[in-house]
Amino acid sequence: MVNDQPIDFWFTMGSTYSYLSTMRLPEIARATGVSFRWRPFHLLVLLKEMKHVPFADKPVKSAYMWRDIERRAAMYGIPACLPAPYPIPESERANLVAIVGMQEGWGIDYVRAAYRRWFQAGEPNGSEANLSASLREVGQEPARVLALAADASTRDRLTAEVDTARSLGLFGSPTFVVGRELFWGDDRLEDALDWHRAGRLTRR
Question: Helix (H, G, I), strand (E, B), or coil: what is residue 89?
Fold first, then answer.
């Protein structure tokens, strides 16, 4: 039986490895015919609950992260100017804008534009420069969108997504969810596609 359900793509706008997924997911969707439901959430809430904030105060691990992303970006043919600014103090605002965008239908284009500016031009997600330029690139007026992002109803939607992520057992970004199966990390995307297609992993 063909699985016509989308794979849930959970990501937070402060996540470094999510850059790789956001850049390659549309092409993978076209090539495989699998649809993805993009679900921005504020991972930092869950990390604080777990008393775990990765990379920020771990220089050796951070150096590995940037080199790892650099290698993988080169493998995929994705431009990257690294290291990019990190951590991202305004990631919550970027997540709120992404929530608005997903509701209105331009969210995927915004997320990709914002990540390009972060990883290729050094403008952190959620910063004023990144927000304004990325929103205008996708045809949105920044003042209107930022007002919606600051509205209590948008915060409630983001909180609800965090609650759902918590109930699923998410602890990182990106995470791909097929039913109740979690696949954490950009390098587990192919595993998620396997599971979506066959309900098991296949040897590659």
Answer: coil
